Amino acid sequence: MVCIVIALGGSLLRPEVDNRHTWLEELIIIIRDRVSAGDRIGLVIGGGAPAREGIDLARPLIDDVHHLDKIGIAATRLNATIVREVLSDAGVSVSGTIPRRVDEAVQLLESRPVVVMGGTTPGHTTDAVAIRFAIAASANRCIIATNVAKVYSEDPRNNPNANAFDKLTHDELQDIVGPDKHTIAGRSSVVGPVGVGEANRANMALNILDGRETNLIKAALEGNDFQGTIIFTERV
Ligand code: UTP
Question: Which CATH number is associated with domain 3-232?
Answer without folding.
Answer: 3.40.1160.10
